[in-house]
Amino acid sequence: MTVPPEAAEFTIPIRDSTDVLRARGSARELAARLKLGSADQTRLATAVSELTRNILQYAGEGTCTIINASDDHQRCIRVIVEDHGPGIPDIPLALRDGYSTGGGLGAGLPGVQRLMDEFQITSQPGHTCLTMAMNRPRTPFT
Amino acid sequence: MTEAVDFNVARWLEAQQEAVLDAWMSDIVSRWKKNYLHVVDTEHLHLQSRQLLEEIRKLFVENPNEFWEPTPDSKIVVLIRSLSTQRAKQGFKPADSTFYVLSLKRVLWRRLLQDRIAENKVALATCLAMIENVIDRLTLLIYEVYVETRERLIAQQSLSLLELSTPVVRLWDRVLMVPLIGVMDTQRARQTTERLLEAIAKYEATVAILDVTGVPVLDTSVAGHIMKTIAAAQMLGARVVMTGISPDGAQTLVKLGVDFSVVTTRATLRAGVAESLLLVGKRIVAVKDAP
Fold this sequence. Notes:
Oligomer: heterodimer
Largest interface: A-B, 23 and 20 residues
Shape of chain A: globular
Number of strands of chain B: 5
Order of helices and strands of chain B: HHHHHHEEHEHEHEH
Keywords (chain B): Phosphoprotein
Strand order of the largest sheet of chain A: 1-2-3-5-4
Helix content of chain A: 25-40%
GO molecular function (chain A): protein serine/threonine kinase activity
CATH class of the largest domain in chain B: Mainly Alpha
Strand content of chain B: 5-15%
Largest sheet of chain A: 5 strands, antiparallel
Protein name (chain B): Anti-sigma-factor antagonist
Pfam families (chain A): HATPase_c_2
CATH architecture of the largest domain in chain B: Orthogonal Bundle
Order of helices and strands of chain A: EHHEEHHEE
Structural class of chain A: alpha+beta
InterPro entries (chain A): Anti-sigma-factor_SerPK, HATPase_C_sf, HATPase_dom
CATH architecture of chain A: 2-Layer Sandwich
Number of domains of chain A: 1
Number of helices of chain B: 10
CATH topology of chain A: Heat Shock Protein 90
């Protein structure tokens, strides 16, 4: 499953681990199409992998929307990850390195924050939404 | 009662059996000849189809006035199940597999419409409805069995893939190598750890090379699994040398804050092999330099 070339927005339902692969594959593909470097492609794919995996672990299921938000000045990929799970009770704590309620390394959320250029969380029980974006200026060749 | 309602589908079918079978088989053969006739034995197909037709006739005898509900152990269900399983395994497309009974419906309809009974609309409608009901049930059954068979096939394949993809290779005395390939999930990680630990104990290995060249994305969950494998190996007294982290992967891991400093890492498998041989007091030299 890939991002259709014309689509500015593409939503992938996240229900099992193959959806995680699809989501990060699609994100990487869009990044490649926008001619982002391979390090940036890896960063984006890893960030998408982290967040969609969190959905499976903490909420069971959700969605991942990948948006090509580029304009004349910059290339921008925005990713919105949403679920209707129990939510994150203490966001600053969840963003602290080494903190995990699920037995993980506790590096996922703070790590994603460092990998991406924009990162926001809104969370309440029943609806959690994480938005992140990667921005790169346009060069004459892109 | 009028004569029309007395019309008996079962008896009609019995009289028509040979003609129906002929027409049906030629319809099937013309559709399947391009792709499937080399996997289907036509004689066997005739035999099966005759059996099926016979069972359908019996259904009409047993349920002359009501609609048939399939029961799991009735002969016709068993027949369709085995036939559909076989086709799914032979690589039939679902549409071609269901075409088998849909073609029978077409043949029966055509013959009924040509029959004397077509003059009586009520009787005709009753007959068509009964045939329709049976064929619809069989179609659904074929589809269901098809999907079941395919799903079982996929499950088997992913299981064999799992078996395949976690080899532990003995590289030299006391040196093991584990090439990790593909997606690392909990199950894969557990299996890898188990096999590595068994091999360390069996070969009294002191060094294990963990090569992650084939792991597409190193996120915290994968890193977590790898760390646990490493910790377990170290508990058995083996040093772990990790190889194959790409430059992009290294940058990403650092940003994520994943700390692999407890293990020796080398960029390439080549460097990792050299390092682990050194750890067991060996090195590779050119033949001309050897003493």
